[in-house]
Amino acid sequence: MLTHLEIRPETARLYGLNSPELVEYLSPYHHGYHSFWLEANTAIAFNAMAEKAKEAGIALAICSAHRPFERQLAIWNAKASGKRAVLDANEQAMSIKGLSDDAIVDLILLWSALPGASRHHWGTDLDVFDADQIDVKALRLIEAEYGQTGPCAKLHAWLVENAHDFGFYFPFQQGQSAVSPEPWHISYFPVAQLLLPQFDRAELAIVLENSDMLLKDAVLARLDYLVDEYVLRIAQP
C-alpha cells in the first residue's frame, strides 16, 4: 500500500500549492526495501509505463525522484565548495579554483538546479535507468550511458517513442534548455505544466536569503536572469 506525504512547506510557498500529495513508490529494482516519493498522478502514470517497458525487456527504474529543499541545497553547496565534481557542458570535470562566483554559478547550473528551483521538488520529475543493464551504484548519469552503445540506450530509445503515451517527456534537450541535455530526466507533463507557471521568484529570493547556500550573493544579484534561463526555458513536448 502506498503511503502519503504532503510536499514540504518550502516547495508549497514557491509554487502557491495547496497541500499537494506525494506518494511513496516502492522500487522493485533495488536491493532490499527502497522507495521514492512521487506526485500521486505521476506515480500512477509511471507505474503503467514501467509495466509497458517490461514487455519490451526493459527494467525501467528510478534513481531519483522528489528531492526536498535541503537535499538540493546539500548538492549545491558540495559543488560550490569543490567537494563534489563540477562538470562543463562536455561532462568534463572542471576546477573552480580561481573562477569568479558568477562563473562557478553558471557551471553548476549546467547540471544542477538552484535549491528551491529544482523540478525534482515537485515529485513530477524523475531520473531513470535500465536496472537490467546497469547497477544503480555504477550509474553516473552521463550522456554516454544513454547513447548508442550505452547500457541505457535501449531504454532511452524506448522512452523517445513511448513516454508521451503516458504523459512523460524530456524537459532538458539540446538547444531548447539552458540546462544541459539529460536523457535520463523525464517529467510528467500534465501536472508539471500546471506547476511551472505558479513559480514565485520573489518567494525563492526570500527562501535563498534565509538559507545557508554558498554563492548566495552572486545568485541573488542575477536571480531574475537565472530563473528565466534555468527554470523557465525548457523544452516542450
From TrEMBL:
SUPFAM superfamilies per record: Hedgehog/DD-peptidase
Record-annotated D-alanyl-D-alanine carboxypeptidase-like core domain positions: 37-190
Listed InterPro entries: DD-CPase-like, VanY-like_core_dom, Zn_M74/Hedgehog-like
Cited Pfam families: VanY
GO molecular function, one term: peptidase activity
Gene Ontology process terms (BP): proteolysis
Entry protein name: M15 family metallopeptidase
Phylogenetic lineage: Bacteria, Pseudomonadati, Pseudomonadota, Gammaproteobacteria, Alteromonadales
